[in-house]
Specification:
It holds the Pfam family Glycos_transf_2. The protein is an alpha/beta fold and 313 residues long. Helix content is 47%, strand content 17%. It has 2 domains: 199 residues, Spore Coat Polysaccharide Biosynthesis Protein SpsA, Chain A (Alpha-Beta Complex); 83 residues. It has 11 helices and 9 strands.
């Protein structure tokens, strides 16, 4: 029977790790190997893990060099046909997910890497469902978006052949891995219409400030994105994104002003503030991209030529 290695990497995750573990060990009718790679937590994380020790194939707790070093350690210790990473603050959406994924992988045995849907949880609003695009649209998606590693299953041999995750990146090595994956001619990538996990997104503005500069650095070193065709596609995608963000920023600012003067519920106000801050942080982070430099030059040319149109903002 096909075997899947589930790897949870954690550090000081006492508030969330138990739900993650329970979502794995309660899976029905499937063959899985569960590994937990802990970075020598200082809180009660290990106490919680030890309570479920009999259902966990391997627990490693030792200092590491960061998230992706820990994930690479997990790959090295896994023995499954496929490897899946489940974060310590996320969980599988129901007890039959792994059975559904296993059935899919058996049916489509030619697929080496497959990704599904992801439920996204927000601190102060209802969750949403993220449905990633089909494989032929991955490079377009990765210009301004990302694929859900929390819903991705990769053949272990593929992870090993690609050298795992590049540890020079501290927060976006999974993004780099997906880009490199698209350049593997013998690797078959697929999409499965299965919602795999529930993913917690917290502190969006802080995340954008940290992750986007590294994402842009990766993009600017990725050879396919440097061709004239992809340069143009990236510029158009970024211009569309920033226009939409500016529009949302204006709408949300106006709505926020109305809410704060109208005595609205605090949760509603805080939700809008979080969305506004995330949009502003995204725009600020975009200024580190190659796109922004090209955009600045384009506005300068338009100004010199006296062309009408949107002015730089």
């Amino acid at each position: 029977m096909l075997k899947i290695s589930i790897i949870t990497v954690c550090y000081n995750a006492e508030k969330t790790i138990e739900r993650t573990i329970q979502s794995v060990i309660n899976q029905k009718d499937t063959k899985t190997e569960y590994l937990i790679i802990d970075g020598a937590s200082q809180d009660k994380t290990l106490d919680i893990i030890q309570a479920y020790q009999s259902d966990i194939a391997l627990v490693v707790s030792e200092p590491d060099r960061g998230l992706y070093h820990a994930m690479n350690k997990g790959i090295a210790k896994a023995s499954g046909d496929y490897v899946y990473f489940l974060n310590a603050d996320d969980y599988l959406v129901n007890e039959f997910v792994m059975q559904s994924v296993t059935d899919f992988l058996i049916k489509y045995s030619q697929i080496d890497v497959v990704y599904g849907n992801l439920q996204v949880r927000y601190p102060q609003r209802e969750p949403s469902l993220h449905r990633p695009p089909p494989p032929e649209q991955i490079l377009d998606e990765l210009i301004c978006g990302a694929l859900p590693h929390q819903a991705t299953f990769a053949r272990r041999s593929v992870l090993e052949a690609m050298g795992g995750f590049d540890e020079q990146y501290k927060i976006a090595a999974d993004y780099d891995w997906f880009l490199r994956l698209t350049q593997q001619p013998n690797v078959k990538i697929g999409y499965m219409p299965i919602t795999v996990a529930s993913y917690a997104i917290d502190g969006q503005s802080a995340q954008m400030t940290k992750v986007l500069p590294e994402v842009y650095r990766i993009q600017n070193q990725f050879p396919p994105y440097q061709t004239p065709e992809w340069q143009q596609r990236r510029i158009l995608a970024y211009q569309k994104q920033i226009t939409e963000l500016r529009q949302r920023e204006s709408q949300w600012s106006e709505t926020l002003a109305q809410l704060t003067t109208g005595g609205s519920e605090e949760v509603e106000v805080q939700t809008l503030i979080a969305k506004l801050q995330a949009a502003q942080a995204t725009i600020a982070a975009m200024k580190t991209s190659k796109f922004w430099t090209l955009r600045q030059k384009w506005f300068q040319v338009k100004k010199r030529l006296g062309w009408p149109g949107d002015m730089e903002s």
